[in-house]
Amino acid sequence: MKNTPELDPEGFLRNLSDWSPEVAEILAENDNIALNTQHWEIIHLVREFYQSFDHGPAMRPLVKLVANRLGTDKGRSIYLLKLFPGSPAKLASKIAGLPKPPNCL
Length: 105
Fold this sequence. Notes:
The protein is an all-alpha fold.
């Protein structure tokens, strides 16, 4: 496995091009998350959102995006909180190798 790339003080990648699935695993481990299929669904959606809008989704747009793409069972805050505790939009963006989304503390 490759070395952990340079991170900012909050654990986000300093260089977005350093991201890879292996780096995602490292970033997730740093936040005590073992990635599974459900995590990867959200990570891929967050990366697609970033490619379209040049920023990661905040929580409300993330919930809406997940509901539209993966169904209302998954497009709920409680579901996302189980996968990415604390701040799902922020944590999913971090693991996806993206900058911190707007409006995330």
